[in-house]
Records
---
Amino acid sequence: MSKKELSTLSRRERQIMDIIYSRGTASATEVMESLPDAPSYSAVRALLRVLEEKGHLRHKLDGQRYVYSPTVERERAKRSALQRVLRTFFDDSAEDAVAALLDISQESLSDDELKRMENLIKQARREGR
């Protein structure tokens, strides 16, 4: 993600971006229906317009409604968000972040998931990361 960092967004703007990323696209009504303690329809429209002005969203006309989609693909946004989490909560330590993930996921990780993680670690070693 460029300097259009999601970290510069307000709580409400982040919630809207999360909704649109999870859905792929969404209208103002769909966003409003998904927001906890949703503000008015006009407030949601204003927030969508702000996100568009900041470069996070674009819209297209679908009949009589605008349908919004993110300007940055989900994979890039995920990487950017993870980098912020690493920097903010784990002092840029991937090891500490993985340890925390394993700690909170202990009981829910399948043998297949653990094997895939093991393979990712082996691959990272081979590639010199």
---
Amino acid sequence: MKYFMLLGSVSMAVVASTLLKIGSRTVNFDSGLWGIMIGYLSSPVIVGGFAAYALGALLWVYCLAAFDLSYVSFVSSIQYVLLILVSILIFNEQISMMKWIGCGFIMIGVFFWLKG
């Protein structure tokens, strides 16, 4: 169950970032601070992104109680890899070879950390 919660925490961070990116396209950033705040609060996608972050934070607190801090910190770095996949599949972003190599190093590091 605790591993499911850890996966949920990482997944919520990815979902939240994705929703906030999508929602940010609808906010007028030239309207001053008050206008931006109204734009945030009136966008269901942005509110959903904030809610996903909140849920992820609750799961994260559970994970901090259930695992060592060093363990959850390293496992949470998997979200970088998931965000690259979201960037490609949803936002059609181009990922350079250097970024792929960096992603590979992250995964190698997570693997060795979990095995150590």
---
Amino acid sequence: MAINARKKGLLILENCLNDEKTNNRDIFEYGLRFVVDGIDGEFLNNLLSNIIDQEKDEYTRLFKLIQKEAVLRIQDGSHARIIVYCLNSYTDLSLDKDPAIECLELE
């Protein structure tokens, strides 16, 4: 998605959104809806943070934080490689032989 957004513009993401997930406030889908609509980054960050603050389960909360970071990086036009490394920084997972990195190598 990030690669498409950088190459074709943020409006291209509208075709990728799942209305059911957006309506259920899935952080990634919900956030991207606002990105497509051109909402201010600071406002979007606050909005998504408010939703995340309501989450009690630590692992779900971490997952939502990662989703929020992805949305904000896509919004600001970060390169896909930067997004992958940024998202990975929330975990202790190795990037060695990671499919996301391998996909970037083909670019």
